[in-house]
């Protein structure tokens, strides 16, 4: 079994990106499991809190999933042409202490959805220096930028567009195949 930890960077109930992640989980081929992580309980990073109490339980839970995962899938919204603060905050927390070791050498793929015409191109690009600093292994072989998302998801944020679902299935299968190839 190939296991991928998937994280959506939106806290919004009907989020396009959370819907895209759920759809990715549903189209994963046989032998591939996407575990949907939840960043909603991750507090704002505060070094004083960290010094006093260590890693918050919500972050420890995400890191436990990351430790088990063969790869990481980031499903990123785009805010002001960059990474949404809540998403960066979650990854920053996860990278603290022993968490940093979990990212080293981990294959990471980034996708995203936005209602605009560029489909999170800028936010995806902004992830690369972060992922390089964390010494991950970015997966470059596929690209998925879901634009005009308003017409592709329903009011609950569930993906309803078959073409996008097909592109997503191809992306997930490609990433998973890359993970299997990488395995010692
Ligand atoms: C946005 N949005 C946005 N979209 C985009 O394509 N490029 C951008 O630069 C921005 N900037 C931006 C800033 C802020 C503060 C907000 C709140 C929103 C729109 C954004 O893509 C939209 O709200 C999506 O629905 C967010 O993703 P989820 O929550 O649907 O997953």
TrEMBL record:
The EC designation for this entry is: 1.-.-.-
NADPH-dependent FMN reductase-like domain boundaries? 3-147
Supply one GO molecular-function term: oxidoreductase activity
What domain of life?
Answer: Bacteria
| InterPro entries xrefs | Flavoprotein-like_sf, FMN_Rdtase-like_dom, NAD(P)H-dep_reductase
UniProt KW keywords: Oxidoreductase
Q: Which SUPFAM superfamilies match?
A: Flavoproteins
Q: What name does this protein carry?
A: NADPH-dependent FMN reductase
């Amino acid at each position: 079994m190939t296991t991928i930890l998937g994280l959506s960077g939106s806290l919004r109930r009907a989020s396009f990106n959370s819907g895209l992640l759920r759809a990715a989980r549903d189209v994963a081929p046989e032998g591939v499991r996407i575990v949907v992580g939840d960043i909603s309980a991750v507090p704002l990073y505060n070094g004083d809190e960290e010094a006093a109490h260590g890693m918050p339980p919500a972050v420890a839970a995400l890191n436990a999933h990351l430790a088990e995962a063969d790869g990481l899938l980031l499903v990123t919204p785009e805010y002001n042409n960059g990474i949404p603060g809540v998403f960066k905050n979650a990854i920053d927390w996860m990278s603290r202490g022993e968490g940093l070791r979990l990212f080293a050498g981990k294959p990471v793929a980034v996708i995203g959805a936005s209602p605009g015409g560029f489909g999170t191109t800028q936010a995806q690009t902004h992830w690369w220096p972060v992922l390089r600093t964390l010494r991950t292994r970015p997966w470059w072989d596929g690209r998925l930028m879901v634009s005009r998302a308003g017409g592709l998801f329903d009011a609950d944020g569930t993906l309803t567009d078959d073409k996008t679902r097909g592109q997503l299935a191809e992306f997930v299968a490609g990433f998973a195949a890359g993970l299997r190839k990488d395995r010692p």
